Amino acid sequence: MTALPTRKLEAWRYTDLKNLAAISFTEAKPAKIVAPLPDLGIPRIVFVNGSYNAALSTPPEFMSPFVKVVDESVLPLVQINAAHAHDGVTIDVPANIDAGAVLLISYANTEMPIAFHPRHRVVLGAGAKLTIIEVAMGQGVYWHNPVTDITLHEGAALGHYRLQDESTEAFHLATIRAQISATAAYESFSLVIGAKLSRAEFHATLTGPNASTHLNAAQLLRGRQHADFTSVVAHKAPTCASRQTVKSVLSDHSRGVFQGRIEVAQIAQKTDGYQMNQALLLSPHAEIDIKPELEIFADDVKCSHGATIGALDPEQIFYLRSRGIPEDQARSILIRAFLTEALEPVTHEAARIFLEDAIETWWARK
Amino acid sequence: MAAVIETLETVDALAAQKYKYGFETNIAMDAFPKGLNEDIVRLISAKKDEPEWMLEWRLKAYALWRTMDEPDWARIKHPPIDYENLYYYAAPSGPAPKSLEDVDPELLKMYDKLGIPLNERAALAGVESPNVAVDAVFDSVSVATTFRETLSKSGVIFCPISEAVREHPDLVKQYLGSVVSIGDNFFSALNSAVFSDGSFVFIPKGVRCPMELSTYFRINARNTGQFERTLIIAAEGASVSYLEGCTAPMRDENQLHAAVVELVALDDAKIKYSTVQNWYPGDADGKGGIYNFVTKRGACRGSRSKISWTQVETGSAITWKYPSCILQGDNSVGEFYSVALTHNYQQADTGTKMIHIGKNTTSTIISKGISAGHSNNTYRGLVKILPGASGARNFTQCDSLLIGDQCGAHTVPYIESRNMSAKVEHEATTSKIAEDQLFYCRSRGLSEEDAVGLIVNGFCKDVLKELPMEFAVEAQKLLAVSLEGSVG
Questions:
Q1: CA B27 → CA A196, A214, B94, B110, B227, distances in Å?
Q2: Domain span at residue A205?
Q3: For residue A321, is it within any domain?
Q4: Does A125 reside within a domain?
Q5: What confidence tens digit (pLDDT) does each residue in A190-226 have?
Q6: Which residue of B has its CA nearest to A257?
Q7: ipTM score of complex
Q8: A-B C-beta contacts closer than 8 Å
Q9: The total number of structural domains that make up chain A
């Protein structure tokens, strides 16, 4: 098995996998479903402990069975996935079809540590449309290492909304690779509330003129949770746009990481690239590490990034208190306002409502 | 060492190639054999008449350097440096000059050509800017330090570091290597082993240094590395402004410059360190030029101390330089203002580190990168807030300007915060010179080149205004000269 990446690798300087490396994993057993699985009244694909579960699924059109492929990626986690993947979902939407929305659930429940490496593939023909709402959840100690490959042909549009609500003992390391052709649009949003340690790593490549991508995320962490959002957006054609906004709310001893890189090739003139990271530190022990990177080889571009890190603004708290709102409530109003703002870029209404509910549930767990 | 005849014609020819400091000076030189081993380290130490402890320190650094690898994380590319094919010591031959009268007139002429007011008689007569004391470092040794008497009246020590090792061993022992440890990195270890000269400044308690201090570095000899070492200490309540300038002749081969600069500011002390770095950048095809691998770091040890770095980097084939501040004292302040301009095949990987340790420490980073030709220009910076740095504040702005579509501009900031009451703000932009700005200037009768010069100067204004007056004027001219041929 390919070795796990260590912090000596620049791409992993802020996320240490030594706790994962120390676990010995056993074979997954059939699991009991002890939590209610979300149902949004749309086609549903359910994986349990890494394997497709036909009984729980109501598969959408255009879905086909898993086929193992050769993958020459240099990314260590993708290599591990390629070596071990034995299941996954493939959705291939033909040109000019609006395939609606699907719900993709990964559920895990295990007494002994298990690892699973699903390989998903999504291909949208020219002008096709699809929305995927993805949920990862479970109980126990496990390692979920999914790789999702997305190909969008000319003018296709994919909305990809991810809720990562894994067991707080679990490791979630997801890699999402998207090839985005001319005028196609890939819009993704990740809400991270679960897992002991997680990383979502996006590689979005804009290959034709006027392609666009939004890679947005919100991290809500407490306890000793660690969440890493890493993205590489490669502008390889002119007049493309990319947007990344990552907001982190960090309490207790939690640690948030944002690493974003915008690469602009010489041919990619008139690129419009933007990255923003905002972190709210709610505890003296929380930590945020960010590295927003620009790598630019074209001159006629508009690229920028920004970052702000700090606690809740004492003046805003004072303002609310002066209007008779108790401090606790004032703080909660401000945090929720910050989160509401984070969800603004989600254009799919059902997905946004689903994510808002997830935030409510997270809030109630406190 | 073989003397090279220099004629007015060659100077003219060189000037035509834009780098007007590219002349060689014809003076007799002493150089040790090529290559680096313990014997060379011992020779350098003996040549400088150093005490035993200094030699031991060097040998320790040398042993450490042998075990280290060249860093590879910066965005720079160069053929491997052959450390065995370098001279580690070169100096004008003969006994060290006792006073300015003893300095080789050729050397004085050279500094005159460079516009350095070395001749203090002229300066005292009011002929040239009288308020700058200069320490000139020629290849490996310090050749003259001006205004020493005036300075010593106020208790300021400003002398070559080799002299400080002999005359002020306690201060040197206490502070040398205390900010940049010998094993800090590959180049600092190399420097610690073979440094031959540089400046030493000590500003005593409560003294405001009566004039600007300045060091002028020049690499003259072929195949030499220059390894200068600068140590500046500002005691409680002291303040000093220090300027550094650099040039080198034009040569086809690359030359190595690996300096270490350490600043120490105690309670309420202020140090302002300004650099105009104009080492030979190589020709239009990327041939030749200086490899500039420099470690500069300041420690704000005392409460309310302040260290401010301002740099204008237009020279060198490769720049690898991260002037940093360690903000240990409560309420201490760190600043970094930088303009880095790369043209032709130059590569710059430069930035800063602000390490916030003390309470209410503040830092400001303003970086302006300009890339033209086939060059690559990277800003790399770290802002680190440690758990004890309550109320810390950082503001960072890095802007890049691209001129032409064959160059690269890169921004790699790292921000690590472990204190909730700290506030960190960062913004970065990349853009090109707007067509409408150019059109506006052209419609007012400016040539395209002048218009670009004007716009670039405006882009850099936030940094240039931090420079002392004399340097600001020079820096503006330098930017314009360095940009010649980048448009049209």
A1: 69, 64, 11, 10, 20
A2: 10-312
A3: no
A4: yes
A5: 999 999 999 999 999 999 999 999 999 999 999 999 9
A6: B416
A7: 0.88
A8: 112
A9: 1
